[in-house]
């Protein structure tokens, strides 16, 4: 099955910059102040080449306790980069979801 996303990180170290926006400068708690909006999965660039499949099969990840409920996305140069919670997005995509609410932080293009 092909994930309905714009691109996946290739895993090729020479291609890494294509899939990574600059650092946001946000601390984890700062993401709570970034508004959640609806995002089409087809517009996302995945920034990771692998995800933890345990949660896809109901295995709880204790590190998620108290974590944000929305995936984190960076908007940069007109593109959307998924930088956090790849496993949740994969799970939703595999269940047929095409649009999800995500926190989208915009980085100026300067």
Q: What does the model show?
A:
This protein has a 5-stranded mixed β-sheet with strand order 1-5-3-4-2. The model is unreliable at 13-18 (pLDDT under 50). It has a single domain (13-106), classed as Conserved hypothetical protein from pyrococcus furiosus pfu- 392566-001, ParB domain. The chain is 8% helix and 25% strand. It has 110 residues and is mainly beta. It is globular and about 35 Å long. The protein is built from 1 helix and 5 strands; from the N terminus they run ββββαβ. The chain has one helix at 86-94, and strands at residues 36-40, 44-46, 72-76, 79-84, 99-106.
Topology:
Blueprint (H helix, E strand, L loop, with lengths): L35 E5 L3 E3 L25 E5 L2 E6 L1 H9 L4 E8 L4
Parallel strand pairs: 2-4, 3-5
Antiparallel strand pairs: 1-5, 3-4
CATH class reads Alpha Beta
How would a crystallographer describe the biggest sheet? Answer: 5 strands, mixed
* CATH architecture verdict: Alpha-Beta Complex
The sequence of SSEs as H and E is EEEEHE
DSSP strand content:
15-25%
Fraction in helix: under 10%
Query: Going across the major beta sheet, what is the strand order?
Result: 1-5-3-4-2
Quaternary form? single chain
Cα radius of gyration in angstroms: 14 Å
Q: Helices and strands: which structural class?
A: mainly beta
Give a concise summary.
The protein is mainly beta and 110 residues long. Helices cover 8% and strands 25% of the residues.
Descriptive keywords:
110 residues; mainly beta; Conserved hypothetical protein from pyrococcus furiosus pfu- 392566-001, ParB domain; 1 helix; 5 strands
């Amino acid at each position: 099955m092909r994930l309905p996303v714009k691109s996946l990180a290739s895993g090729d170290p020479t291609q890494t910059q294509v899939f990574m926006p600059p650092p946001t400068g946000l601390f984890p708690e700062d993401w709570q102040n970034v508004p959640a909006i609806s995002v089409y999965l087809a517009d996302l660039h995945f920034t990771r080449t692998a995800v933890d499949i345990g949660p896809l099969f109901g295995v709880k990840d204790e590190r998620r306790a108290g974590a944000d409920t929305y995936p984190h996305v960076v908007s940069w140069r007109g593109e959307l980069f998924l930088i956090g919670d790849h496993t949740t997005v994969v799970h939703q995509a595999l269940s047929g979801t095409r649009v999800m609410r995500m926190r989208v932080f915009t980085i100026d293009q300067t």
